[in-house]
Amino acid sequence: MDAVKNTFAISCAIVVVLCAWKIVNMVWVRPKKLEKFLKNQGFQGNNYKFLFGDMKEFSMMSQQSKSRFQNINIDDGDAVLSHVVAFSHHSLQTHGRSYITWMGWNPRVTIMDPDLIKDIFMKFNDFQKSKSNPFVLLIATGLVTLEGDQWEKHRKLINPAFHVEKLKNMVPSFQWSCSEMLGKWERLVSSNGSCELDVWPHLQVLTRDMLSRTFFGSSYEEGVRVFELISEQTALASDALLSFYIPGSRFLPTKRNRRMKAIDREVNVSIRSIIDKRIKEVKTGESNYHDFLGIILESNIRELDQHQNKTHGMTINEIIEECKVFYFTGQETTSSLLLWTIILLSRHQEWQSRAREEVLNVLVNKGMNVDELNHLKVVNMIFYEVLRLYPPVPGITRMVDKDITLGRYSLPSGLQIALPIMLIHYDEELWGSDAKEFNPYRFSEGISKATKNKLIFFPFGWGPRNCIGQNFALLEAKIAIVMILQRFCFEFSPSYVHAPDLILNLQPRFGAHLILRKL
Ligand code: HEM
């Protein structure tokens, strides 16, 4: 009996020692080994600090820039950078261009070399999307988070919805949504022909409306409610991201966790009811396939018919997740592009006049169609320059899946990699001494000339996993800006405060108070 007890006690002791070693290894031995390994290869950065790494400094800097009321000088690129990506900007200035930061006990290296960035994007199976914070996964898990065969299958089935020919059919819906917004603006304009307005909420409603109309077509009203919920979910997730994630904390019955779960349930139920209705319509032959959901369901049904096999095609749950992905990725990004375009055109009146002149010349007496819109060269140059200085997604990350060589570096499995879009877009070594200035001329002969064929401009990512919605976003933004320029001129109101803020993407912290004048 004693022998059995002893064996049990020894086994328990071994398990306890092994667990303790695993924890010590994870939070101390491994980070210190990696620190030495990475620093020996030339990466600079803070030494690893037990458990939290750089997270305390990171959250403190983010909170500081959020808590202070600050009107940032719009012409001072460094001030903008140090406000939006405070910690990365500080690290770049302190440690140089290849640096390590510590996300808790996990090291993250920042890469700014365009050739290495290209390599990372091309080898997308080796450099996978970072495992998202579980709070973000509650917003959506689909194309943005999938890997390998699953990602390939979904991308192939969804690609047809974003084909240029399909996008052309969406122009009337975009115009309709813009007309509604501009109609409201016209009613607000007083008898002297002008009004002061915070345009930010209007642009958010506009892009929400455009996406709901083109995505859900006839089910537009239900789609709007889903949007409201996903916006709330995004704000809650963004708040959660500012603090260090303690494994398992999302299961605690906190107020935020409960609300996030309730939203998730409601969103799933709403989208499922839209899809069920649509499938019924498909079966009775009442459905048309002009909206996104229709095109994706059609593409899915075709795939299932061809292969008669459930491993092909997407399940209804997967389609629901993809719908959430489009809401999440498609709305705030496009409203951000439109907003910063309007802000920079308010600051640079000469470019506003030039853009309006082009719009009035090129589109005179012509209906709005994709081919005509493609002739708007100045508007294109302005969009590129806005995407360079105010990229709606200021940075992306990847994860090293297995020990791998990247250029002259050996990177260990599990390492995170940051590709700091905004830091690269502002870099004087890469763009020249006017890198931090607004100068759309740099794009006058296209992107490859402006970038000298280097990968230093990637507001939509790059390579096989680039943004699937890029053409969609540029088309809707173009239609919106054209219609605004045709009817209004705009400038800053005295109450405008320039405070770009990173809330998962780049947004104006205090809105965008402008004076609109009817033309
Ligand atoms: C100005 C607007 C937009 C910007 C700046 C933008 C930016 C980006 C970026 C940087 C990525 C790459 C992320 C990475 O590599 O980790 C991406 C991916 C993605 N975007 Fe966009 N996006 C915009 C609009 C849209 C729209 C309108 C949609 C859909 C309606 C959309 C859907 C997606 C999806 C699904 C992915 C993941 C693609 C994949 O991994 O295969 N985006 N976007």
TrEMBL record:
GO terms for molecular function: heme binding; iron ion binding; monooxygenase activity; oxidoreductase activity, acting on paired donors, with incorporation or reduction of molecular oxygen. It comes from Ambrosia artemisiifolia (Common ragweed). Its main location: membrane. It comes from the Eukaryota. Belongs to the cytochrome P450 family. This is Uncharacterized protein. InterPro entries: Cyt_P450 (IPR001128), Cyt_P450_CS (IPR017972), Cyt_P450_E_grp-I (IPR002401), Cyt_P450_sf (IPR036396), Cytochrome_P450_Monooxygen (IPR050665). PANTHER family: 11-OXO-BETA-AMYRIN 30-OXIDASE, CYTOCHROME P450 FAMILY MEMBER. The chain crosses the membrane at residues 6-29. Its cofactor is heme. It is found in: Membrane. Keywords: Heme, Iron, Membrane, Metal-binding, Monooxygenase, Oxidoreductase, Transmembrane, Transmembrane helix. Pfam families: p450. Heme binds at residue 467. SUPFAM superfamilies: Cytochrome P450. The lineage of its organism: Eukaryota, Viridiplantae, Streptophyta, Embryophyta, Tracheophyta. GO terms for cellular component: membrane.
